[in-house]
Amino acid sequence: MIGERAILVREQAAGLRPSAYALAKLAVFGVVCAAEAAVLAVGCALVRPVPGAGALLGSGGLELAIALAGTALASCQLSLLCSALVRSTDQVMPVLVLMMALLVLCGGLIPITGRVGVSQLSWLVPARWGYAAGAATADLRRISPGSPADALWRHAPGPWLLSIAILATCVAGATALVAVRLSRIERS
After folding, report:
1. Is residue 118 exposed (0-12), middle (13-18) or buried (19+ Cβ within 10 Å)?
2. Residues 26/175, Cβ–Cβ less than 8 Å
3. Neighbours of 112 (CB within 10 A)
């Protein structure tokens, strides 16, 4: 977004609406994230067995691909929002470090269930919901008995749907906030 700011201002002067720009970014990134998720899912399926039965859709592979694509798109839109909020490339690096640190809050690297503060903070992170959707699909609590007793990891439709719905909400919210931020750039 920083490199495109001059182009954006020129296009807005010609009548481009910030919401149209944000939705166009969403569409392009959605296609790219879906393609990347498909490649990753197929690549993983070549080296590891795919869960046969998913938590909701019947196909474990399809559910994992949806969780991957949703996580990628939510993370991408969150990164786009961060990019829209900063004013220079010097301000981007600290934001990127923060984004990388958010991966720790997915729940797979360190146990976060029952940890006051950390557990609640993880609710704001797309990686938390994407990991939960994948764990519900794979029935992680059954195949890895030592894993935390995270309710979102249950192999049931509810946890999987909740995780996917929250990822979709993250995408919609970040896209709306990008549009709001872009409309303020127009005025400045």
Report:
1. middle
2. yes
3. 22
State the Cα–Cα distance between residues 67 and 41, nearest whole angstrom.
10
Q: What is the pLDDT of residues 46-58, one digit of tens each?
A: 998 888 888 999 8
How far apart CA 72 and CA 34 sit, in angstroms, is: 8
SS (H, E, C) the chain: CCCCHHHHHHHHHCCCCHHHHHHHHHHHHHHHHHHHHHHHHHHHHHHCCCCCCCCCCCCHHHHHHHHHHHHHHHHHHHHHHHHHHCCCHHHHHHHHHHHHHHHHHHCCCCCCCCCCCHHHHHCCCHHHHHHHHHHHHHCHHHHCCCCCCCHHHCCCHHHHHHHHHHHHHHHHHHHHHHHHHHHHHHHC
How far, in Å, CA of 97 to CA of 38, rounded? 27
pTM score of the predicted model: 0.87
Alpha carbon distance 107, 132 (integer Å): 8
1 falls in which pLDDT band (50, 70, 90)?
A: low
Say if CB 132 and CB 163 are below 8 A apart. yes
Q: In terms of Cα–Cα distance, which of 74, 54, 60 is closest to 127?
A: 74
- Report angle CA 61, 67, 69 to the nearest 5 degrees: 100
Q: Return phi, psi of residue 3, to 5°.
A: -70, -20
Tokens of 115: 């940890």
